[in-house]
């Protein structure tokens, strides 16, 4: 009995030792972790430097802004910000940026959610091809389609109209929203739909009262991703937009000169003001953006 117990103990010790060695070998060394995080910080700082330059330049005078070498410590001035606020059309353009961005993306989310539910639940023939075809709309460079779209809008008399711009931005926001939401809907179990149908629920009840609450993170992620696109869009707004549908990027491009030279103070201050809303939105909803970048595939079935 003692020999058997001793043999068992002797056999167990190498196994435990092997597990300990394997755990130690698999754990990264502390200096590698520090090097990895230092590299991440370096990359983040490099990408943030242009944004930091814009933020600082917005509070510099014209003389301080073009001075070389640049000064990091200076007396800030708010004259540039006030000059932007005093522009005659600034508040009109800013209000139109909010209206077009939020309105177009909300329309796109409604259409994309219903289409994603159809693709996810009913799986029509050629679903994968249709999904690729829809997403390919976003793969085409804007400069390649601006002339055909202008001719089409001109034929429909939609140029320089509010409804023309909001429909255009909704059209371009639908494909990406559809891809994100379909990924989330594929992760929602069919048992929800079946249970609701057995209990007498209508299809609309299932869509909006049962399934919709399950994909709220996907809706938020699609909203943020697409609103950034509409918020920063310039080319089509410049060509198709009019007096009642012009956004801030057009104002930024058409008011960059002052007295025959580039007005860097105006560019920096207007850019700072215009960047703040998306920065705040991304900060508040960053966890949903991380989920959205995985297209819902990490959720599994719920």
Structural class: mainly alpha
Average of the residue pLDDT scores: 82
What proportion of the residues is helical, as a percent range? Answer: over 70%
- In DSSP terms (H or I, runs of 4 or more residues), the helix count works out at 15
Shape: globular
Q: How much strand?
A: under 5%
What are the segments in which pLDDT stays under 50 over at least 5 consecutive residues?
1-18, 20-25, 296-302
Which topology of the largest domain does CATH recognise? MetI-like fold
CATH architecture of the largest domain: Orthogonal Bundle
Number of domains: 2
- Radius of gyration, Cα only, in angstroms? 27 Å
Spell the H/E element sequence.
HHHHHHHHHHHHHEEHH
Q: State the total count of DSSP E strands.
A: 2
Which class of the largest domain in CATH terms?
Answer: Mainly Alpha
CATH superfamily heading of the largest domain: MetI-like
Terminal Cα span: 52 Å
Q: Going across the major beta sheet, what is the strand order? A: 1-2
State the major sheet.
2 strands, antiparallel
Provide a descriptive summary of the structure in words:
It is built from 15 helices and 2 strands. The protein is an all-alpha fold and 302 residues long. Strands 1-2 form a two-stranded antiparallel ribbon. A hairpin with a 2-residue loop joins strand 1 (257-258) and strand 2. Helix 9 crosses helix 10 (203-211). The longest helix is centred in the middle third of the chain and has 32 residues, at 90-121. 25% of the residues are buried. The model is unreliable at 1-18, 20-25 and 296-302 (pLDDT under 50).
């Amino acid at each position: 009995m003692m020999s058997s117990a001793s043999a068992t103990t002797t056999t167990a010790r190498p196994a435990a030792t092997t597990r300990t060695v394997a755990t130690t070998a698999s754990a990264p060394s502390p200096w590698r972790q520090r090097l990895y995080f230092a590299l991440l910080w370096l990359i983040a700082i490099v990408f943030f430097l242009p944004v930091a330059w814009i933020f600082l330049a917005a509070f510099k005078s014209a003389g301080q802004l073009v001075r070389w070498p640049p000064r990091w410590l200076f007396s800030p001035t708010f004259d540039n910000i006030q000059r932007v606020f005093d522009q005659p059309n600034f508040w009109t353009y800013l209000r139109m940026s909010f209206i077009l961005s939020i309105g177009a993306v909300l329309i796109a989310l409604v259409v994309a959610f219903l289409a994603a539910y159809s693709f996810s639940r009913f799986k029509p023939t050629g679903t994968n091809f249709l999904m690729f075809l829809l997403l390919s709309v976003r793969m085409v460079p804007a400069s390649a389609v601006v002339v055909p779209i202008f001719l089409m809008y001109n034929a429909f008399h939609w140029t320089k109209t509010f409804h023309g711009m909001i429909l255009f931005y909704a059209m371009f926001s639908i494909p990406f929203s559809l891809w994100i939401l379909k990924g989330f809907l594929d992760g929602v179990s069919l048992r929800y739909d079946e249970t609701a149908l057995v209990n007498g629920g209508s299809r609309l009840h299932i869509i909006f009262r049962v399934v919709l609450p399950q994909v709220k993170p996907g809706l938020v992620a699609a909203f943020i991703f697409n609103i950034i696109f509409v918020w920063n869009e310039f080319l089509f707004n410049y060509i198709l937009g009019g007096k009642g549908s012009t956004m801030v990027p057009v104002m930024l491009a058409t008011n960059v000169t002052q007295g025959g030279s580039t007005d860097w103070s105006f560019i920096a201050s207007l850019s700072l003001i215009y960047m703040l809303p998306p920065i705040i939105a991304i900060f508040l909803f960053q966890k949903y953006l991380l989920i959205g970048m995985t297209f819902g595939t990490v959720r599994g079935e719920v």
